[in-house]
Specification:
Blueprint lengths: L1 H15 L7 E10 L2 H4 L4 H6 L17 H8 L2 H11 L3 H7 E4 L6 E9 L4 H37 L8 H16 L5 E6 L3 E3 L4 H20 L9 H4 L11 H8 L1
Antiparallel strand pairs: 1-3, 1-4, 1-5, 2-3
Length: 255
């Protein structure tokens, strides 16, 4: 009875521990990215001009953006505001509910949205991904515009009649032409997972509580019971009284 009682109590306590922890739902969208060096490439012809020739201030191949840069674009206020308007969520809600990761040695980004049951995480993930790509396109276009402006300034500073600068002029014109006519996509959505439930599951805490209750009950049952101390005054043996001798017998021996 003791074991059964503690097991039942443990199960109830385990189930009660999940009260107030609402179950959530999640969905992940995978985005294929165009690397920054590809987006800001000056083109094959411009690179061929530099082979075996001295070109003044050629364009340095840009470094690919880091995961921190991409995550900052995902969580930018403008992107989350526009995404939130589509799914009825505030930017702060989306910012708290989103996680960003990138598999090693890949050009994809994974955005996971985990929301309460009141919202659709799949729709939210799609909206955030689309607005992120819009922000990324703007970011890369700004870098491209800055690069083109720098090349144009350099071309304008070169003497157009000096043959010593012929190779540099050819390179700069080719790079400017390629950058202004070729615009690859910033990225695209390639996968959107179905919604799945996550969060509190009362079955696991209840099972754990029952197990702990059983263990506690077994410990209580197997504990040795304390024996009551013996009453020393009651158990102390008193000396037996001397046998009484009849009076007549005493008189005879005295005579």
């Amino acid at each position: 009875a003791v074991v059964a009682g503690t097991a039942a109590l443990g199960g109830l306590l385990g189930a009660a521990a999940t009260v107030g922890h609402a179950q959530q739902r999640t969905s992940t969208v995978t985005v294929a990215l165009t690397p920054s060096p590809t987006y800001l490439d000056v083109g094959e012809f411009a690179r061929e001009v530099t082979i075996g020739a001295l070109v003044d201030q050629p364009v340095v191949q840009p470094v690919a953006a880091t995961i921190d840069t991409e995550a900052a674009l995902v969580r930018s206020q403008r992107a989350l505001t526009r995404a939130g308007e589509q799914v009825g969520m505030t930017p702060s809600e989306l910012r708290d509910d989103i996680s960003v990761s990138a598999p090693p040695l890949s050009t994809v980004l994974e955005l996971t949205l985990t929301t309460s049951a009141a919202h659709d995480p799949r729709a939210a993930a799609r909206a955030v991904a689309e607005e992120y790509l819009t922000a990324r396109r703007t970011y890369l276009e700004d870098r491209r515009t800055t690069l083109v402006a720098r090349l144009q300034e350099r071309l304008a500073a070169i003497d157009a009649t000096d043959p010593a600068w012929a190779t540099t002029r050819t390179y700069l014109r080719a790079a400017i032409d390629y950058l202004t006519t070729h615009r690859p996509e910033a990225g695209s959505l390639i996968r959107l997972t179905p919604v799945r439930a996550v969060g509190a599951d009362r079955g696991v805490p209840a099972t754990s509580g029952i197990a702990l209750g059983l263990l506690a009950g077994l410990i209580v049952v197997r504990l040795p019971r304390r024996r009551r101390p013996r009453d020393k005054t009651r158990n102390t043996e008193e000396p037996a009284p001397a046998p009484r001798v009849p009076a007549e017998e005493v008189l005879v021996h005295a005579g």
